Every structure is written in C-alpha cells, then in structure tokens.
Amino acid sequence: MKKLLFIFPHPDDESFACAGTMSKYSEAGHEIYHVCATSGDKGKCGPFNITCKKELASFRENELKKATDCTGVTELILYRFPDGGLSAMNRETLVEKLRETIIKVLPDVVITFPPDGVTGHNDHITLSEATKQAVVESEQWLKPHEWCDLYYVSIPHYYDHCTDHAPSATYPITGKIDISSQTDRKGQAIQAHKSQEYSVNRAYPGILEGDFRVIKPYEYYTLIRSKGVEITPIAVEPVPVFDFFTV
After folding, report:
1. CA separation for the pair 240, 177 (Å, rounded)
2. What whole-number distance in Å separates Cα of residue 174 and Cα of residue 235?
3. What angle do CA 194, 220, 131 make, to 5 degrees?
4. Dist. CA 22–CA 2, nearest whole Å
5. Distant-in-sequence, close-in-space partners of 195: CB < 8 Å, separation ≥ 6
6. May I ask the CATH architecture of the domain 3-230?
C-alpha cells in the first residue's frame, strides 16, 4: 500500500486534473490524500442563490467532499487560505504548511500543477512553486527512504472546447496514466462541482447533463523530482503509459 498526496488550490482543480488517477489508485488499495489550499470563495456560484463569500466557501467545500467521495480520497485536508490570494501570502507560511503536511502524511508521490498553472492562474502557479519548495525542504527532516517523488499534472485537452489558449507549457509531459476504467468516476466527481457550471461547460461540455464522452482515457504527468534528485524531463512521442509504482 502506497500514499499519494494531491495538492491543488481550489475545489474542482482535483476533479478536472486527476479524478481518474485518484480513483484508479484508490481502487488498487492505496491511500489518497488531497490538500485544497483555498475554499474557492471568489469563484462563481452557478445556478445557486448564494449571497456571500462565506456561504460560497462552505458550499464549495461540500461540493469538494462529494467529489472526493466519488474518487475514494482517504483524507481531505482544507487549508482555507484566501482564494485568489496565495501569491500575496508570506511564501514561507505557505511552504511551511505544505512541508508539515508532507512530513505528517509521508506520501510516496506528491502531485500538483506545473509552474504554468495549466491556465496561468496565479494561485495555481504560486502553489506549484511552494509545493516544490516544500518537497525539497521536507527532505531535510525525513530519512532518505521517506522522500517522495514529485509530479506535475497537465491537462492538454483543457482548451479543446473553448476559444481561449493555454499558456506556454513550462515542462514537457513525460507519461500518462490509463484511466479508461475510471472515466465514469471522474465524470461523477466533476458533476459534484455544480456551482462551477461555467468552468465545467468550457472544459468538459456535456458532463453536467450526464454525457461523459468528452473525458479522455488518460491523465498526463511529468516527473520532476525523485528521491531527492532533480529530474530534467525529456519529451517523448508518443507519450508512454506508466504506473507511479512500477519501474
């Protein structure tokens, strides 16, 4: 049994990026931990009559809990930092919180967004940088056999159904996880974020109506640090299918 720690800034990031992977490794008997750094209280409220940020934060946390139930998350960890404000935080405060979580959970694998944030969102970028720093710093506190592997997750099909464009990728994708048996669970997790219908309909049209055909059979990753060693990723075509725990 292994432990995977997913670190994202907002409710719904995990479902868009990794819900299939979470489900796959949960089904295989591994422990899944998910850090959500903010409660998404600056987001839209969709079809719901939500009157204030506090109410929206609570609503979105409940949606996130439903989503993580779909994907078999072992523990959901809520930091409740300011939505849209991670870049304005004291960086050491953010890194320290992440480092403490890594030391407590002792994950074998940590997953977060790449430095381009997939969408260029400042919270995504800031948390990516802080997570990498926290992983490196955790190695000073842990024994070598406790050091984790760090992966960035990308969503190369995020802009397939809208007119926007992705920022320039900062790292090449080096592997993909086969989630073809988990697309229904990914779809159900995305459906849980009903308040975010605008974002869901842009990236995954049809899902809120129960049509999961838009979900691709793979989720995409880049290994950038392994057991204390920085990895220089090299693009490979076609992108190979891999498993986090199979050499």
Report:
1. 9
2. 6
3. 80
4. 12
5. 43, 44, 45, 46, 47, 48, 50, 56, 59, 60, 63
6. 3-Layer(aba) Sandwich (3.40)
CB atoms within 10 A of CB 84: 17
Cα distance between residue 164 and residue 182, in whole Å = 28
CA distances from 231 to 2, 8, 112 (A): 22, 22, 16
Q: What is the tens place of the pLDDT at every residue in 184-239?
A: 999 999 999 999 999 999 989 999 999 999 999 999 999 999 999 999 999 889 99
pLDDT tens per residue, range 24-51: 999 999 999 999 999 999 888 888 888 8
Read off the tokens for 32: 């899944």
Alpha carbon 74 to chain centroid, angstroms? 15
CB-based burial label for 1 (10 Å; 0-12, 13-18, 19+):
exposed
Residues shown for the chain: 247
The C-alpha angle 104, 242, 132, rounded to 5 degrees, equals 35
Domain segments of the chain as ranges: 3-230
Q: Tell me, what amino acid is at 170? A: T
The pTM (predicted TM-score) of the whole model is 0.96
Q: Give exposure, 187-205, as e/b (b: 16+ Cβ within 10 Å).
A: bbbbbbbbbbbebbbbbbe
Number of H helices, E strands in the chain: 6, 8
What string of DSSP letters covers 144-162? GGGPPEEEEEE-TTTTTTS
CA 170 to chain centre: 17
